[in-house]
Task: inverse folding
């Protein structure tokens, strides 16, 4: 099993450009999350999904959109990138139920110039 | 007050030392607690869950003190490979969201 994978691993965007980050998991997990991690800020939740076709806002959703058309995939979109979105983005998945263990992908390092 | 607070460190210890980290949380309704480990430029990985009765996994011991609202992680016989950032994580309420501390940095020196 590959676990949680993310593409791309690195990306440089110019201000105003758009892009989509892809997260895929092969563990049949119901829940999926997108976080960003910045120095001194810790992990902050952007959006999450508790099942195929459903999404919800997290702590810092502005400037991002998400879609969960298939259970195994969770896409994070930046419609018009800003320098403030320079960050490391992590995707995570979690089994439904009373366990809260989250499994993370390797991250995407995004720089917006 | 932050929901989850940790001493950022860094903690610099020699190999073989015992080191302990504490983490405090503000929501008394918190139900589940975890320690994650994050290596430099890598993703977080679950180290251990923290149970009310305390739990041990090899050289690692986690404790929960609900009255004082803190959890602790004790590492015995530190190895060079223990060098990492240790993240305290708390789940509270009926949602699926975890609250993450900023992490405590540990450097184990030869």
Result:
């Amino acid at each position: 099993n590959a676990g949680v994978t993310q593409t791309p691993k690195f990306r440089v965007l110019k201000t105003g450009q758009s892009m989509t980050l892809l997260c895929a998991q092969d563990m049949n997990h119901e829940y999926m999350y997108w976080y960003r991690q910045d120095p001194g800020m810790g992990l902050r939740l952007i959006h999450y999904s508790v099942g195929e076709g459903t999404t919800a806002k997290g702590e810092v959703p502005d400037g991002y959109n998400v879609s969960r058309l298939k259970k195994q995939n969770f896409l994070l979109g930046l419609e018009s990138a800003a320098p403030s979105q320079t960050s490391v983005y992590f995707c995570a998945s979690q089994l439904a139920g009373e366990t809260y263990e989250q499994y993370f992908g390797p991250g995407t390092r995004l720089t917006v110039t | 007050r932050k929901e989850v607070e940790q001493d950022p460190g860094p903690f610099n210890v020699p190999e073989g030392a015992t080191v302990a980290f504490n983490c405090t949380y503000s929501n008394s309704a918190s139900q589940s607690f975890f320690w994650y480990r994050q290596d430099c430029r890598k993703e977080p990985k679950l180290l251990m869950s923290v149970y009310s009765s305390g739990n041990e996994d090899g050289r690692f011991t986690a404790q929960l003190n609900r009255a004082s609202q803190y959890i602790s992680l004790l590492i015995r016989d530190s190895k060079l490979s223990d060098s990492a950032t240790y993240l305290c994580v708390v789940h509270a309420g009926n949602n699926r969201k975890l609250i993450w501390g900023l992490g405590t940095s540990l450097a184990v020196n030869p």
Q: What stands out?
A: The radius of gyration of chain B is 13 Å.
